[in-house]
């Protein structure tokens, strides 16, 4: 036994009741027992999803002159000349194992036989898709809204939508570049500190070497002086002898 998680709240009930009241008012007008208000006057807009479908299908379309479109006893009028594109070939094995594949491409223009079309699901999904992902829905909405250039405006909307999609990736790339720059600057600062430390050490060593050289020179000078003094004493002794 299947269970469905389906809940109806107070707003849902109010919406349903409002549609029932529209249908009741329309039925009362049709039978001459209510206010003389046609269905088109009972809804807020001809494209609004309000009211209930009549049994015969009349007034399914509330645009002027199209009240019979979709009625049960009326042929649906064509607003454009039909253009039937070729469908697909009959696949092998369709009429049982071993049945051959078709040799003629099928089409919706034919009045008999089977039409093989693997894409009607895609078509129906495009029809019911009312999101910004469906350009046809966007263009239709712009036309209804009175856009002077619905195709151009739809292109701008598509660009804005793509920019919104690309923005997180661009922000992430910018953050990564900033992090890399900070890491590089930190490494450079560490290298500069190490270089400064090394330079200070070398300066200390150089100073020590200079001091040692001065001490050595002083010792050498003292030794030379001692030798000179000794030679002077020796010379004096030789002269006295």
Task: Provide a compact summary of the structure.
This protein has 241 residues and is mainly α. The chain has helices at residues 10-30, 120-128, 135-144, 150-240.
SSE layout:
Blueprint: H1 10-30, H2 120-128, H3 135-144, H4 150-240
The profile of the biggest β sheet is: none
Sheet/helix structural class: mainly alpha
- β-sheet strand percentage: under 5%
Helices, by number, come to 4
- SSE ordering: HHHH
Query: Low-confidence runs (pLDDT<50, min 5 residues)?
Result: none
The whole-angstrom Rg is: 49 Å
Q: Percentage of helical residues?
A: 40-55%
Number of strands: 0
Average pLDDT confidence is 81
- The geometry reads as elongated
Separation, N- and C-terminal Cα atoms: 144 Å
How does this model look, in words?
By secondary structure, the chain is mainly alpha-helical. It has a domain of 64 residues. Helix content is 54%, strand content 0%. The longest helix is centred in the C-terminal third of the chain and has 91 residues.
């Amino acid at each position: 036994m299947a269970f469905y998680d389906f809940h109806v709240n107070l707003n849902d009930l109010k919406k349903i009741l409002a549609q029932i009241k529209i249908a009741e008012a329309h039925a009362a007008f049709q039978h001459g027992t209510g206010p003389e208000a046609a269905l088109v006057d009972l809804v807020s807009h001809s494209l609004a999803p309000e009211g209930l479908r009549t049994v015969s299908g009349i007034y399914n379309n509330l645009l002027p002159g199209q009240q019979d479109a979709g009625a049960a006893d009326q042929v649906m009028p064509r607003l454009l000349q039909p253009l039937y594109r070729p469908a697909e070939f009959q696949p092998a094995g369709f009429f049982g194992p071993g049945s051959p594949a078709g040799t003629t491409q099928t089409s919706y223009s034919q009045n008999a036989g089977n039409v093989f079309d693997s894409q009607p699901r895609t078509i129906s999904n495009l029809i019911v898709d009312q999101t910004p992902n469906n350009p046809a829905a966007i263009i239709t909405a712009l036309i209804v809204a009175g856009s002077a250039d619905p195709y151009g405006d739809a292109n701008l909307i598509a660009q804005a939508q793509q920019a919104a999609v690309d923005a997180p990736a661009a922000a992430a790339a910018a953050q990564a570049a900033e992090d890399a720059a900070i890491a590089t600057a930190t490494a450079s600062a560490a290298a500069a500190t190490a270089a400064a430390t090394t330079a200070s050490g070398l300066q200390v060593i150089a100073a020590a070497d200079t001091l040692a050289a001065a001490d050595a020179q002083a010792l050498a000078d003292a030794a030379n002086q001692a030798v000179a003094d000794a030679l002077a004493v020796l010379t004096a002794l030789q002269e006295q002898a």
